[in-house]
Write a structure and sequence with these properties.
The chain is of the alpha/beta class and 293 residues long. The protein is built from seven helices and eight strands; from the N terminus they run H-E-E-E-H-E-H-E-H-H-E-H-E-E-H.
């Protein structure tokens, strides 16, 4: 169960600090509380509402069994995202965003398959017939693919949603998601444009503490959704098992009833035959009595 965030938690993490006033984006005006010493201050009350809204939506996506792709290539965020999101089992991109990763997904899948093919070569003895130089070149290629595509190697289809840290830096990822109508969740700072973001979370996207707090909260919501999915599956399996047991018991009962009915039917067929034998035995006796009289 995720711990509900409070105003003071956001304040302590510095989530309220925006950019310099001259760097602001007027479209962020609804989320700005005030300006202090030339810096815009984010309205944390609105951040709390938007964060809860985003977390609940992410939880439902995770509960449905779909994937959420996290994108954070800026140095303050990459380690935080990789470490925390790995625990949820969701894919993430923390190195350079490969252009066309969403809009040209089949090509990305080819690169992933190439990685798998190299792994197979290492185990089936193909490497033994290669020179040391060839092996080294292939392994370097494998390492490069691993670095760029490692966490998305198991992503067999497009993600159900995208979570972005810093929409300014990851504008290509946001554009691709918008083009494919993939919902975008994002931390938006005062210099960002929130209009293309489906679930904007107004927050400081430069401070490590702020990023860590938001990422941890949404990751906890995802874990909550996954746990509920697991419990529902277990409940469904138990109900199915109970239903199958009840059906088997009903079938046995029906079988027993059929056997009982068959026995009763056989007994009824035998009764007239025995009556007839009794009558036949009684008939000669009656004839003898008549003769003696």
């Amino acid at each position: 169960m995720r711990k509900k965030l409070e105003f003071k938690d956001l304040l302590e993490a510095g989530v309220h600090f925006g950019h310099l006033k001259r760097k602001w984006n007027p479209k962020m005006a609804p989320y700005i509380f005030m300006e202090k010493n030339g810096i815009h201050i984010i309205d944390l009350e609105k951040t709390l509402v938007k964060l809860e809204e985003a977390a609940n939506a992410l939880k439902q996506i995770a509960k449905s069994g779909r994937k959420i792709l996290f994108v954070a290539t800026k140095k303050q965020a990459k380690e935080i995202v990789a470490e925390r999101i790995k625990q949820t089992g969701m894919p993430y991109v923390t190195e350079r965003w490969p252009g066309g990763m969403l809009t040209n997904f089949p090509t990305i899948r080819k690169a992933v398959k190439k990685m798998a093919a190299i792994d197979k070569m290492a185990t089936d003895g193909t490497f033994d017939n290669m020179s040391k130089r060839e092996r080294l070149q292939i392994m370097r290629q494998r390492a490069k693919l691993e670095k760029n595509l490692g966490s998305i190697a198991d992503m067999t289809r497009l993600p159900a949603a995208l979570f972005v840290v810093d929409v300014m830096k990851e504008y290509i990822a946001v554009k691709e998601a918008n083009r494919l109508s993939i919902p975008v969740f994002a931390m938006v700072d005062t210099n960002s444009d929130p209009t293309n973001i489906d679930f904007p979370i107004p927050a400081n996207d430069d401070a490590s503490k702020s990023i860590a707090l938001i990422i941890d909260y949404v990751a906890s919501a995802i874990e909550e959704g996954l746990e509920e999915r697991r419990m529902e599956k277990e409940k469904g399996a138990a109900e199915k098992e109970a239903q199958m047991a009840a059906e088997a018991a009903a079938a046995e009962e029906k079988k027993a009833e059929k056997k009982s009915a068959a026995r009763k039917s056989a007994a009824r067929k035998e009764e007239p035959a025995s009556d007839q034998v009794a009558e036949e035995k009684a008939a000669p006796a009656e004839e003898g009595e008549e003769k003696t009289s």
